[in-house]
Amino acid sequence: MSPGVGQPGLLPEDELAQEPQAPDLLDSVTALHSCQTSEELLDNLAHYLSTAGCSGHAVLLEQAGENHHWALCSSLPDIDARAGVVDLGRFDAYSAVPLLVNRQRLGTVLIDALAPAQADTIGTLLSHFAIALFRHQIDDERQRRHRLDAAKLGSLTQISGVLSELSLDKVLAKLMELAITTVGGEVGCIALADAPDAAVRVVTEWGFGQDMLDALRLTDGQSLVEVVARERLLSISRCAADFEEFEQVELLDALTTMVVVPLATHKGHPGCVLIANATALEDTDIELLRMITELSSSAIDNALLHQDTLDKEALRQQLEIAGNIQQALLPTDAPELEGAVIAGLNLSCDESGGDFFDHLALDEHNVTFVLGDATGHGIGAALIATTLRASLRALTGLTPQPGLDLADRLGELNTLAEEDLPDDKFMTLFFGQYDAASRTLNYASAGHEPPMLLYRAASQACEYLEATGLPLGMFAGMPYDNVEGLAIEAGDIMLVMTDGVTEAEKADGEQFGKERIEAFVRANAALAPRELIRALADHVFEYMDGHPQNDDITLLCLKADG
């Protein structure tokens, strides 16, 4: 059995006669209740126990269970008041006197060499000590709260400067300075992940860089800051011995204390604020630091949102510039031909698109024209369309001649496309040449399947032109065929378009389709090419009835004069 209060044999029998006399109990109790501070109370207890012949003692406050205590003060050689939590079961060589207030255990006093004759008196004194200590704890907590409230008010004024910033760099810099000041830190950093699943990295440093952050790896291999950031835990190292839990402890020799506070943003970016060599690590200081980081998370969210808005606006402007350049490359004026009229229209669903058309008059009777559709839409498709348009112009020459072998040019263009385009990218393309003098059409089509429609004015019938090869960029060395000498009579209309027309949808998913195109052309065949394609585009948007355009729309129309 462990020695306890009132147990005999605590002092050798031949020393019992020499037991010192304790001070008057009433005076001592009165003195305890007259103490103004916890420190004064502990000093009075130490004086009484020393006068009563006790060679040492320790006051332990109960923490997380009967045997786990916090050393409030100690004069015992094997208990350090700075050591933190103490396992009471390890010190059964001392007399253990419980501190009870209203039958609730406040803590324990360990006493070395407690004389049996003094046990009852000291037990009574410690009962009053427990009551006085409990009262001082209440007063201390009230004062702590008052100090914290005052500190919060002061910090709120400073945090307002953080919250007013929209620049992420300035928000982080002000938060870093405020956190360092709050706990009297010497070095520190703010670490933040770029995305919810990205690694936490240093974004603002105050003498504590990424190399030192990487050194904070626990013996099980986990990164301390990752654990704090993702599990939203608080980590405090109050003495040099606490740093021995890290694998690369030699890199942390200069650190004496450290606090790591989680920083949780509403955008889901995990992070933390780390302050090292801090001189103010009382509960009040830590609570204030946590309040600062919690409030500052809103400022970080606002700054991230602001930066995201700026980035999107910059991208929108760049895409708008790209779209303007792309539109500038499209023909604006139709060539003047004897016996025929040609016109084109391009309507991208984004700032830039993957469709294009082009035409070039060879002389007063002959015109060459092309319509292409790259996979997808947006800036990637626009780059493909612009590149292949320029390549086709280079392959056909600046001044192509009548009788150009269209299929050969498509084969050469396919070779370039297959070499340059990614495996999942390709382009369909219609390439034609019209001779108004002979009223004949030659064409070659690289996989262009959307309606290539030929309206016959005499019969009001619609014929469909067939593709003569695979899309560009799919396979190298693919052959392409020409269709030559296709007769075009007076009033006939050739209408080529991209699938943005046929696949235009209403809200219920029903597509515009070929039949509506045929019906529209028959009903509006008297219109000139420019008016016809503009009216057809308007008809498509009316059909969509406000449903978003999900692909580029491009039309190319040639009509033989009557």
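The above is record 1. Record 2 follows with the same two-line structure.
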Amino acid sequence: MSIVEQKLATAFDSHKQGDLRQAKQLYIEVLNFEPSNSEALFFIGVLHVQTQELEIALGYLEEYLKNNIDAEALKQVADISFDLQRFEKAVKYYEAYLNLVGEDFDVLQNYATALVYSGYFVKSAEVFEVVCKEKETALDYFNLGFALSRADNPKKALDCYLKAYELDSTSAATCINLAGLYYDLYELEKALYFNKKAIENNPDCAESYNNSGNSYLDLNMIDEAIESFYSAVKLNPSYDGYKFNLARAYFAKGDLENGWEYFKYRRLLFERKDLKVQHLNDFSGNLEGKTVFVYYEAGYGDVIQYARYIPFLIKAGAKVIFEVQDGLLDICKRSFPDVQVVGQSFDYSDVKYDLQTNLFCLVWFFKEEKFPFADGFLISDSKKVHEFSKKYFNNSSKKIGLVWHSKNNDLRDRLKSVEHLSAFNSLADVSDVMLYSLLVGSGVNQIEEVSFSVESLGSHFTSFDDTAAAIMGLDLLITVDTSVAHLAGSLGVKTWLMLPYAPNWRWFTKGKDSPYYSSMRIFRQKVHGDWTNVFKEIVHELQNLGVH
């Protein structure tokens, strides 16, 4: 027997008797003689699993597998990788193991979970389905529901979560996910039901109170939303998202004082962590001579609406670098000539500035100004205005612009939208009216599907500068809640805004006017999803008041 064989035999004996220290030393000595010795590599790997030194175990076992096809080692490496949350590697080794041994039910749950964390949701759902056929447990159906929801199959996911709830109604996690799916499907009463069940199962679950608040907001039950969001904040005061949601509810109610108090926490949700200079909201000194970098972190409409606060930085003596989306670059440069307006490709890494802030935070910083420049603050391109006027508006009719679709990314966008342009046919019957579409993107094809005449302008737009020029030629813009509504209001153009039953918080829940835009009038749905009363009111106004 060779020295290596003797040391291995002694190592095996020590290992078997539980003397892991001695066994480890002997395995190492063997590997010093023969670095690729398969038995030493395998058993020292197993030893390190026993001592919970998983990183070391992984190294030895992967080295062993370079020269050996071994089901047990493949499973060990897969399990170790799973425990270390290296899910891509776990998937690789679980698949190699299963290919070698065939189906092994005991590893399928970990394999499917690793697939989820690796982003392979469809495959994960397939594996979890096998698990659920073998044994019907609440946890397995919960996991299958999770995989299906991430695989963008919400209705099938819903069935799985309901099965999990049937098997175990005490799981707060199941109730939370059911509530979330029902919320996404806009079945708000059911979402509230399962949020309440989640709270019954876990009274300290801030997430469930927050989710209830979101459902109440969508149902226009503002007081209930405030109560729910407040409970979430009370249970988890460190999470600023709950505080901002509470601000949204207060604003929706028209309670500006409380709204501003909680609105300031929105900053921490969207602040750029790579900007190392002090945030404006933490600064209490004189802004004279300071350079402030203001960056966007929301949609076009948000940037248009809150750009009105930029001049107050200039008034305070600051120099301003204002980052906007490229589509807003030209109109913002013209409207704020004392500001360095930059686009999305701006490299701010080499620019010196003293303070930084996301645009929304200016609202809180200058909250004492309330709603400044409500009469308008953006400036259109006079040359483009003239070109649009000459080409499209050279007539004596009342020129009415239409925007009837939001961006249509999700169900809530669709609820803001009018389903089809044909719903505006009653406007076409009003005498001496010319209709123009300012729509870009989803819904434009409907212009060819209606029986009345609509001039399409949106196809000529390359930026908001073009949109602004077209708006300036209108007598009236009628629009759903989109960025174009903010643009028209910021230009001081007469605008009629069509809002769903539960509108975005910035429009409040009552009133015909907007404090943000003096040229805007609001028409609100009286019944969820039904625009009938809105169109009746608009046609009545057109017929009896005229458009001037």
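The longest helix spans residues 3-17.
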